[in-house]
Amino acid sequence: VNLWRLLHITCMFGAVAVLAGGGLVRNAVLHTGDVAAIRRTIETEERLANRLGAPLLLAGIAFGLATAVQMGYPLLSPWLVIAYVLMALNILNGTVYARHATRIAAAAAASTEDAPSTQLATLIRARPTWTLNAIDALLWLALIYTMVRKPFA
Amino acid sequence: VTTWKFLHVACMLGAFTIGVGGGTLAHRVVTTGDVAAMRRVLPTWDRVGNLVGIPLFILGLGFGFVTGLTGGFDLTAPWLVISYVLVAGILVHGFAVYDPQLQRLKAAAAASPVEQPSPALAAIISSRRTRVTFRVEVGLWLAVIVTMITKPLS
Q1: How far apart are CA A43 and CA A92, in angstroms?
Q2: How far apart are CA A126 and CA A105, in angstroms?
Q3: What ipTM was predicted for this assembly?
Q4: Which residue of B has its CA nearest to A49?
Q5: Which residue, of A65, B3, B65, B121, has the greatest Cβ tally within 10 A?
Q6: The predicted structure's pLDDT at residue B154
Q7: What digits encode the pLDDT tens for the residues B58-75?
Q8: Cβ pair B40:A148 closer than 8 A
Q9: pLDDT given at position A126
Q10: pLDDT tens per residue, range B11-30
Q11: In this structure, are residues B9 and A144 in contact, taking their beta carbons and an 8 Å threshold?
């Protein structure tokens, strides 16, 4: 049993589940327009992402590098470089999304509970809310493809 | 073979993300006791699971079999039999135990006052069943992932 590979894949599955799964449900809740629910959901999702999702992602990346070293893959082989670029883009996308979520959380905190304020409603309808989610999903798919297919290996 | 394997892994990761990732958020919201949030998060997660998660799971299983057939795997190999049992466990536990508990939570949240959980809702939130069913579901998923990676007894 390759322990590093097991830890790598398990941590990455966990990270994707917490970050992308939580984000998907949060986005769906945003579109209900229920301000009290939005406040609680964003707060809970951010805490989960920071305390569980991000540490799992970092551990998964580290275990991935350890797997590559242990299995004798050159760390600069093209498929691994593609994976590094995709992961960097994913982290960048996540950072942009986190900023957008912070703006939504601030607008939800300032909004009345009866109905979303104009600012909150605008942010919920804004393109980044779903576009960044879609980019996230595509980047994860590209990463899985790269890991399974190992192009140019 | 790699294309089928990619489709198998992608679909299963998608199902895991919705089932376990979305479920983790839903369960964390439940433990806050915030009725307004529960009323929105639980039905939303349930809907996403039914519309996207379950179809991805079924597709992932199908692509898994095609990967096994085209990749020359013995479909009765011990590690595959273990994974069949675990997948059956996810389905049986999911439909017979986990989903009914989720429906009870949803119904109690809908009937509860928003200000604070009703005694019925509070009892379900703090029940051992609510905590254990989610952990069993996550545990079964993790066991499938470990079996797929380590291929025990092969």
Answers
A1: 21
A2: 14
A3: 0.91
A4: B25
A5: B121
A6: 79
A7: 999 999 999 999 999 999
A8: no
A9: 85
A10: 999 999 999 999 999 999 99
A11: yes
Structure tokens at B118: 């009703």
A150: left (phi over 0), alpha (psi -120 to 50) or beta: left
Average pLDDT of chain B?
94
CA distance A41 to B34: 10
> What six digits make up the tokens of B85?
């049992």
Whether B149 and chain A come into contact, CB under 8 Å, resolves to yes
| pTM for this prediction | 0.93
What are the structure tokens assigned to B71, written together? 């990749």
Q: DSSP characters for A47-110?
A: HHIIIIIHHHHHHHHHHHHHHHHHTT--TTSHHHHHHHHHHHHHHHHHHHHHHHHHHHHHHHHH
* Interchain pair A45, B18: CB under 8 A: no
Q: Give CA separation, B53 vs B45, B73, B92, B110, in Å.
A: 10, 27, 16, 24
Chain B contact probe: residue of A6, A40, A113 with most B CBs at under 10 A? A40
* Torsional sign, CA A93, B4, B48, A12: negative
Summarised one tens digit per residue, pLDDT across range A102-126 is 999 999 999 999 999 999 999 998 8
Q: Is the dihedral of CA B71, B75, B80, B86 positive or negative?
A: positive
